[in-house]
Design brief:
The complex is a heterodimer of chains A (about 270) and B (about 775).
Chain A: E1 4-9, H1 18-27, E2 38-48, E3 51-60, H2 68-72, E4 78-83, E5 90-95, E6 98-100, E7 107-109, H3 119-123, E8 130-132, E9 143-145, H4 151-154, H5 161-165, E10 171-175, H6 182-189, E11 205-208, H7 211-221, H8 231-267
Parallel strand pairs in A: 1-11
Antiparallel strand pairs in A: 1-10, 2-3, 4-5, 6-7, 8-9
Chain B: H1 3-15, E1 21-22, E2 30-31, E3 50-55, E4 64-70, E5 73-79, H2 92-95, H3 97-101, E6 111-113, E7 122-124, H4 127-145, E8 150-154, H5 160-168, H6 178-195, E9 213-217, H7 227-238, E10 242-246, H8 252-256, E11 259-261, H9 268-281, H10 287-293, E12 294-295, H11 297-304, H12 309-316, H13 320-333, E13 337-340, H14 351-365, H15 419-428, E14 436-440, H16 444-447, H17 451-459, E15 463-468, H18 473-476, E16 480-483, E17 494-497, E18 503-506, H19 520-531, H20 541-550, H21 556-561, E19 565-567, E20 588-589, H22 593-597, E21 617-622, H23 636-641, E22 646-650, H24 651-656, E23 664-669, E24 678-683, E25 690-694, E26 736-741, E27 744-746
Parallel strand pairs in B: 8-14, 9-10, 9-13, 10-11, 12-20, 14-15, 15-16, 21-25, 22-24
Antiparallel strand pairs in B: 1-2, 3-4, 4-5, 6-7, 6-16, 17-18, 18-19, 21-26, 23-24, 23-26, 26-27
Helix pairs in contact in B: 4-19, 5-19, 6-14, 9-12, 9-13, 9-14, 15-17
The chains are: A alpha+beta (about 270), B alpha/beta (about 775).
Amino acid sequence: MNQYAMIIDLDRCVGCHACSIACRAEWQIPVKEGYRRNWVRRLGPAQTSRGLSYTFYPGLCNHCDHPACVDACPADPVPVTFKDVKTGKTVDMEVAATWKDPFNGTVQIDKNRCLGCGACADACPYGARYVNVELADDDSEGKADKCTFCMPRVGKGLQPACVQTCIADARIFGLRDDPKSEVAAYLKKGAKRLESKNVKIGPNVYYFGHKKDLELLDKLETPQEMPEANSRRIMLAKMLKPTLGKVAQLGIAGIAATTLIGSEDKEE
Amino acid sequence: MNRRHFLKMSAATAAAMAVTATGDVGGGNLFRPATARAAIGPETGSMGAKEITSVCEMCFWRCPIVGKVKDGKLIKIEGNPKSPVNGTRVCARGNSGVQLVYDPDRVKTPLKRVGARGEGKWAKISWDEALGEIAHNMQQVKKKYGPHALAYFDHGASAEFMRGIFKAMGTENFTSEPAFYQCVGPAALAYLNTVGYVTTGTRQYNDMGHAKAMLLVASHIGENVHVSHVREFIQGMSNGAKLIVVDPRFSAPANKAHIYLPIRPGTDTALMLAWINYVIRNNLYDKKFVANNCEGFDQLKTEVKGYSMEWAAGICDLKIEDMKAAILELAKAAPNVNIHPGRHATWYGKGDVGRHQSYAILTALFGAVGVPGGIYFPTPVKLGKAECPEPEEVETAEADPSMKEDSEYPFSSIFGTTTRDIINAALTGKPYPVKLLGVNGVNIIQTLPNPYDTMKAIKNLDFIFCEEMMAGETALWSDIILPDSVYLERYDGLYAYDGLTPYLTVRQPVVKPMFDVKSPYWIAQNLAKKLGIKGYTCKDEEEFLNEELKGAGLTLAKLNSRGGLVTYPGNPYRDPKKLKVGTESGKIQLSVEEFDDEDLDAIPKFEPTPAPPKGYTRLVYGRAPMHTFSRTMNNLWLHNEMPENKLWLNDKVAARLSIKNDEEIILENQDGKRSNPIKVLVTPGIRPDTVFMYHGFGSKSKHLSRAYGKGAADGFLMPTVVQAPFIGAASQRTNFVRIIKDGKTLNIPELVAVPNEIPRYESKIA
């Protein structure tokens, strides 16, 4: 797997919030409490062990190595064939309504199968997901939503919207495991994950900057505990299980069609 | 969700099932809908939208942009990729222009006041009636009091066409921009007289991107966002420039500084003069450059010799070793050093021009004029001149006495009429009564210090009208409100950028105007007709833009075929041996004789501004990166990022007063004026003798449904102003506050002793 990752260079960041608004514009995220794929929090000025710090927490989905959200999804798994466009390699996987892409490592949501139960949002220690209840329909209480690393844009050769608008070029997007990438260069320079003793799920947004700023960021924003599973969600998930089996069977035909459409398009 | 609900769902899902992802390591990961029926399709975002190039006006910096339109609706704004200054980037506000167009609180039709002034009650009227009322009142006031009773406050692109109307009516008060007199004016005057050009006006010519060291004095680039500035600043920093920040508040750039000097407010000039003296005494200046290009060095040397570093350390409340380290860093980088003028300059009154003179002097001593990293020279873009956007020349009677020519502020008339003098004339009738105000693109009640005077002055007027997109405080006080079109709905003039990488671009409509709004050109044209003023002869904006483009060998169509923007080679630097600047002698003036001729200081002196009265602290303010002035607080997206301002309060002071972070308090100033409730940010990042808030909040207009009453308005705590002797700019950092919590008045403990040399402000009440 070649994991997509993002670097946030706090030495360059001025905390202007262009990123979070460009994301909102690009994906038409409604303005409502907690509705956002991308955010900036203003931290300090506060004292650190290395002097005063006034820095920022530009956050988004971390597309973790071991995403807690994916495991939390109660939707019954369906078989899906993933295909790497470059090599033609395919991987068959059973996925729920949210999964980690085996080729590029991004975490994605199938809104058509999402039940809007919110279990994934509860499971994320970074609070990167929310449920958009405006998308509630007969089939769901809404749809889980979060950053996709702008895969539809990246697929067209564009940068993620937040990266494109960043006035200070403080966001760097690319392949983590490609040693020639700028992301890899930042990792060598010591870009850090927001991880703690009890929260080690391999987030792929990395923060670079002065030690005092990273200290304040870590102190205020690194989650210290994995969220406890919400009992209501578990109950709901259990209740849904039997019916979901049928859905999975019915779904197979749909998936075959999808793969076909996908390959046709690529030949254009 | 219950089981029945879920079963119903599964049937629907069967038809609309499944998505797969095909991993594309090289850059394409495609999402596909299963079938078209009821499925949520793949996200396309703003991709595939129609793209129209234009120019931003969420602030006056005017970055080149692209509007992205789907189904006739503007959905996103990006930077124009052809732009050498911002490329595809726009700031938070630039991104949020979308929500200005679709703000439900916009002024939608011409309005006529039906309640009392300030009440905000209006009736809808037609354009014909509205322009008729304005024309009638302009003529009546002119007939009754003479042409000079008419005055115009303007700001921004949309205000320029109407300026011609006031000029044609014969008033001398056709420009009195708060953006000049209450902002960059003192700085512009200082640089004009020292280095011979306005280094810092609407544009700024500071080459931060190539600087090896930079000095910011309370300038908070990054919180104050103009995209090209931020980019040049970050470019300089990432190239390893040393940054010195002088500010009573630990700002965003202070966080990036190598040396941070938390100066006592009001003492910046003391620090600058001590540094200048130190640079001269220790031979840290560029002798060749000074000998070849500067005048007045000997006078300067004599004048500053009393300002020692030891003395300044006490006055400024700074550590002498930090002060020395800072000036040595700056000297080491010379001539590639940027002594940044900041922008907003009207702080303390008398010393504001001198403070900026001292920046210009230090720049010259380091030879940082016309070299990479220093201040540079603009490269004008050659354009044509269309006659049609203006009224025909009219002969105007000179005012006697003239508010401009007989002003007690000898340098005010270079640019227009002092903003504060217009308010005074409306208040007192002296030197003659001002009885009609046109206000365009500026919310004078939030912008000018002492809004109480501004409101009183408005009460004295026979007539006031404004052109506004949103009904802020000034609209509340207006007799007629003309709905302004948003910059995304209209044409304006050409935008020629004369900075490091010159370019030419044009604003053009991205979407059709919403509601019953008209373009500024149409408004001026039709008002001119009502007034019988000849001119504005072009059919529309396209015609005059084509006229103006002729000089550049372009047409609107040609410009659009080239991505809406063309670039030119820049010529920013000069050979120091052949330097000739725009002063009369062609030399840089370290001592300004023109000031001396008016009995003002030729070389700046330090005169302390009074310290807070006992029990009070000084109120300062600044910019938030997601807001412009007081005009964006109602914007859906920007409001969502920062709905209110907070009061920055020193942590030790807060502990003494038992105030906790995020607690709500009220501020009371030295004259008993009180603020809206405001939350407190308890932080070590501000001095104990200073409090700070972001400007523009605390709207008093109920017509701004999101912004109304959110946070506190700094201006309403500023009734005390000192008019500076150069241009009559009114000071904005000469007011003091204490805190009211749960109805109890809390005096601010004085944790930093005030030196005897600094007098104390004498409060009328405390």
